[in-house]
Amino acid sequence: MKRALALFTLAAALAHAAAPPVVPWREAASHVGEVVTVEGDVAMARTVADTWVLEFAPGDPRAFRVVVLLALLETSPRQPERLYQGARVHATGRIQRFQGRAEMVLRGAAQLEVVTPGMPATAAGPGAAAAPAEPAAPVTLPPPTLPPKPAPSAAAPCERARERWRAAASEASERLGALGRCLDAVRYRCRAESAALSSALGALDATEREVDTACR
Predict the structure, then answer these.
(1) How far is residue 212's CA from residue 179's CA, in Å, rounded to a whole number?
(2) pTM (2 decimals)?
(3) What distance in Å separates the CA atoms of residue 161 and residue 209, rounded to the nearest whole number?
């Protein structure tokens, strides 16, 4: 009996020791090369080629993200953004750095766990059960407060051209990453990613010519 209890205690201790540490997504970049469980609220979930991309700070191109390889999943929801967007998740795997950005590439559904589901867009508030079953009244939001428009200047066309270039560069970088992940996975079918990258590079070249013309 004592021997069985000792073995059970040892197994429990080993299981606890083997569990990777849980870190907030904002601290993920300091754990590059380590196997950890990253916790965070998904601000944006989108599909890029044959991958899902879970963003925790969509406005920051250097922020940590999770990339899920769809081809390696056993089952895939048709609209993953409904499952992950707004949800708190645990992503377990090795953090790597790709093009200066910390990310985690998941190769199985078991590596991604929804801890707290996201709030559906049509979720009712408190007391909704007592309300009659009728379409909800439209909600009119106040217009956003915008900063004053700058006076037209000679630099405006140049800045617009540079803004288009930055958008094209971001798209080309995203497509390059998708192609790189396809090549790393050795899938032997990366034509779609290659074609998307070629298109993005063509757009980048066109915007670069615009910058050369507008910013002389």
Answers:
(1) 29
(2) 0.50
(3) 9
